[in-house]
Write a structure and sequence with these properties.
The complex is a heterodimer. By secondary structure, chain A is mainly alpha-helical. Chain A folds into 3 domains: 64 residues; 34 residues, no CATH class; 218 residues, Orthogonal Bundle (MetI-like fold), CATH 1.10.3720.10. Chain A has 19 helices and 2 strands. In chain A, strands 1-2 form a two-stranded antiparallel ribbon. The radius of gyration of chain A is 33 Å and the shape is extended. In chain B, helix 4 packs across helix 5, helix 5 packs parallel to helix 6 and helix 7 packs parallel to helix 9. Classes of the chains: A mainly alpha, B alpha/beta. Chain A: It is a multi-pass membrane protein.
Chain lengths: 374, 266
């Protein structure tokens, strides 16, 4: 029924305006083009104007950013740097020592890295490890490893100390972060009072972990203990803030549902609110653990121990090869912690059936192959 | 035995009048269905009755006591079920009765054995005993709503309020959930309020009907009084013919209502 008048109109059109219909033959809306062309042109002009204005605005913004950046370069002395290419090249040779494999092929001398990593116990402490790995195994030594030497972290040498600082900081900081984060949420504590907790967290965040370490030196001395405490403090500020933000996102429904059961206030907070964010909280905590291990490297640099301290010590001795070996150890440590934490987080968040640990290890080559072929 | 009295309640949100001088009285044990289009005030009425909202004017008395804040003896079921996704059906059911326990014992599930048996009994009432250990997140919409009913039952209520409990369910699950709601209410002798907008389901399950339009009560009567004219009055000029084809057969309790919404040929 609707099809019928169309050919007629097109016919009519062909007779009145041949050139137009030639161009648009076969397309249905041809008759309307001439009717509304003025309006279309007008709209198009308006779009062009808007785009031109926007382009002008962007150009102005870009110019402004360039201008400000030059000022910042001047302030950081990058405009007139005291650059010494010669010393850089000389030190590069120390950072990346070259050896001749089979007396002909020049390549990076990994042997020197590995020998320092072994000599300085960067990744493995044989003193502690001997208790666990010996033939034949000795029950008293295994007992000593776990319960008198507390070897689980120390077996990893300097890396173990760095890892332990990050771990202790996260574990000690977590309960405080939970309390501060929950009480800092406007849904739990009414408006002006929640700022007591938010303000405390802001203050803790304003001071970096490295400075907190300096503050704790009079209390615990310069060492891993004050570093771990400083990281714990830092965790309260950062993790607590993530908890507050997460709690802003919860749905009102379950909270109301728990209210109608006649529950008391702490029960409403726990069942109605915290139960909604449990997985998210665990995920954020693992993320902060990653960050804390990195912070443990930084506070090590000012002398708190672990891999960070080895870096400064070797730098002061101008042993750049050893320093690079330490950086490689740091890289290995951070990558392992991140891999572990990310696998755990994705397992927590996914709704799939969980893989067992054994399948996780044995199925690894096959999964690797399938994802490589994708 | 609860006796429920709504006395001239008005609820305003700014300039919007959501409820306008609504009054009624309900004797204990009735199954009341609240009808009306979206925005007619059904949810506001039920939420005010549960104590989640306080009325601008008027008073609600349940069992002789005014309803000011939520009380354990008035349980509520929600359209979006609002159960805790991360917990098992059993833990969800158990969370209905936490008002009788302290914070630590409810968090660590240290309730006494009889309470835990009651939670399982409530799950049995809604036909989910064997699924008790399943995570709520992995259940279907209908099952989740039934967990919501179980939680409300563990609360040991005298009054059960259900705010569009089947609005987001498919017709089959909707019938199931309404059936469980009805039998639970009968078994435990609960005064039940349920808002609905499926007229056929309403006629099948309700004793008494309260109709709202623009926040005003326009109908209050029992099943025989709920005629096509009343429905027309409530829902305006929609095609109600289909709704009554099987609705007139009412109490048989079959699930063959599907053809009532078949589009007419032209």
């Amino acid at each position: 029924m609707r099809r019928q008048p169309n050919p007629n109109r097109a016919d009519l059109y062909v007779t009145t305006d041949t050139t137009e219909s030639d161009k648009t033959r076969g397309s249905d809306p041809a008759p309307e083009v001439t009717n509304v062309s003025d309006r279309i042109v007008e709209q198009f002009e308006s779009i062009k104007r808007t785009r031109r204005r926007r382009a002008l605005g962007w150009t102005g913004l870009l110019g402004f950013i360039i201008f400000v950046t030059i000022q910042a370069f001047a302030a950081t002395e990058l405009l007139d740097p005291d650059a010494r290419i010669g010393t850089l090249l000389a030190s590069l040779n120390e950072f990346f020592p070259i050896t001749y494999y089979f007396d002909v092929i020049p390549f990076l001398d990994f042997g020197r890295y590995i020998s320092f990593i072994r000599d300085a116990n960067l990744l493995y402490d044989p003193e502690i490890g001997r208790l666990l790995f010996q033939l034949p195994p000795s029950a008293t030594d295994v007992y000593a490893f776990f319960f008198t030497e507390f070897g689980i972290f120390q077996i990893f040498g300097e890396a173990g100390i760095t890892l332990a600082m990050g771990f202790v900081g996260t574990v000690v900081g977590f309960p405080f972060a939970l309390v501060f984060g929950t009480l800092g949420s406007g849904r739990v504590t009414p408006f002006p009072f929640n700022f007591i907790f938010r303000g405390t967290m802001s203050f803790i965040r304003a001071v970096p972990a490295i400075v907190w370490t300096l503050i704790f030196i009079p209390f615990l001395g310069l060492g891993p203990a004050s570093a771990a405490l400083a990281i714990a403090f830092d965790t309260i500020g950062n993790l607590g803030r993530l908890f507050v933000d997460e709690l802003e996102e919860i749905e009102e429904g379950p909270v109301e549902a728990i209210r109608t059961t006649g529950a008391n206030k702490p029960q409403i907070v726990f069942f109605g609110m915290l139960s909604q964010v449990r997985t998210a909280f665990i995920g954020w905590t693992l993320y902060v653990l990653e960050i804390n291990v990195r912070i443990a490297v930084t506070v090590g640099v000012i002398g708190a121990g672990g891999l960070g301290f080895v870096v400064t010590a070797q730098q002061n001795l101008l042993q750049f090869t050893n320093m690079m070996a330490t950086l490689i150890s740091i890289f290995l440590l951070i990558i392992s912690v991140e891999l572990f934490s990310q696998r755990l987080r994705s397992r927590l968040r996914s709704d799939d059936v969980k893989m067992g640990l054994w399948e996780l290890i044995t199925g690894f080559p096959r999964r690797m192959a399938t994802s490589a072929l994708k | 035995m609860s006796y429920l009295k709504v006395d001239g309640i008005t609820k305003r949100f700014g300039d919007v009048v959501a409820l306008n001088d609504v009054s009624f009285e309900v004797p204990a044990g009735e199954f009341v269905i609240v009808l009306g289009v979206s925005g007619s005030g059904k949810s506001t009425l039920l939420r005010t009755m549960s104590g989640l909202l306080s009325p601008t004017e008027g008073e609600i008395q349940i069992d002789g006591q005014p309803m000011i804040t939520p009380r354990p003896e008035v349980a509520m079921i929600f359209q979006q079920h609002n159960i805790i996704d991360d917990m098992s059906a059993y833990s969800n059911a158990l969370s209905g009765g936490i008002n009788e326990f302290g914070f630590l014992s409810s968090v660590l599930q240290l309730q006494d054995e009889s309470e835990k048996h009651r939670a399982l009994d409530a799950l049995d009432t809604v036909g989910l005993l064997s699924e008790a250990e399943q995570k709520a997140r992995r259940m279907s919409g209908g099952q989740q709503q039934r967990v919501g009913i179980a939680r409300a039952l563990v609360q040991r209520p005298n009054v059960l309020l259900a705010d569009e409990p089947v609005a987001s369910l498919d017709p089959g699950s909707a019938q199931d959930v309404m059936g469980y709601l009805r039998s639970a209410s009968k078994e435990r002798d609960l005064t039940t309020f349920c808002s609905l907008h499926q007229v056929n389901i309403a006629r099948k399950f309700g004793h008494r009907f309260i109709g709202l339009r623009n926040g005003k009560k326009v109908f209050d009567g029992y099943r025989d009084e709920l005629t096509i004219d009343v429905i027309d009055d409530l829902y305006g000029d929609i095609d109600t013919e289909g709704m009554f084809v099987s609705g007139s057969g009412d109490t048989r309790g079959t699930v063959d209502d599907a053809p009532t919404t078949q589009p007419e040929q032209s």
